[in-house]
Input
Amino acid sequence: MTEEKIAVERHFVGSEAQHATLKAALIDMDGVLYDSMKGHTAAWYRMACELGIECTRDEFYAYEGMTGAATINILFNRAYGRDATAEEVKELYARKAAYFIEMGEPEMMPGAALMLERLRNAGVQRVLVTGSGQHSILDRLDRDYPGMFSPDKRVTALNVTHGKPDPEPYLKGLQLAGCRADEAIVIENAPLGVLAGHRSGCFTVGITTGPIPEADMTAAGADIVYPSMPEFASRLPLLLNALNNRQTK
Ligand code: MG
Output
């Protein structure tokens, strides 16, 4: 039995959804479609250091998926014992976004195009689910992954209030896809995003594309973890097969 079949059985055991088929993939952007987390963490670190707030660059990997305001509030509470005002959030997030752009365009994630192609060929709709408001990347989606995400199938910072690890972004993604949690999978690279996917009730795939250990993704509720995007893309047919042929009772 494949690792994929075991993971699917474990997720759906005893559930009514055993005969459901896969209709949608809810897909995170940073660290999944783009190798952009190095740039984001460097930009956050530079901004925080300028404010004189004690921090490490690596801690920003752990905050991936939160809204910009939530990350700024972690820094503000540490340094000043209070949340940032709306004006401070606006100014500091703009500064961080500018530093991110200064570092140049992040690379497309190797293997991501193949993953999307395989989902499309299997008749699975793709829904973008990101907490990002970074337009420098969002604007590139149509150029880099043409036809993969229709404009009405995107959840971004514009329509998310809570951000990950709240399940809200993925629940919105399910609404856009018009399907139930047992008919969709979440594809994530960060623990808070995995937790959001897990809480939404979807079968959640964790992919390690940065320094975050696989164990952190499992602890956050990932149903299966892959060591890289090319590895996930190559095994995706096995996962699709397992999800579309569930026998869990
Ligand atoms: Mg991500």
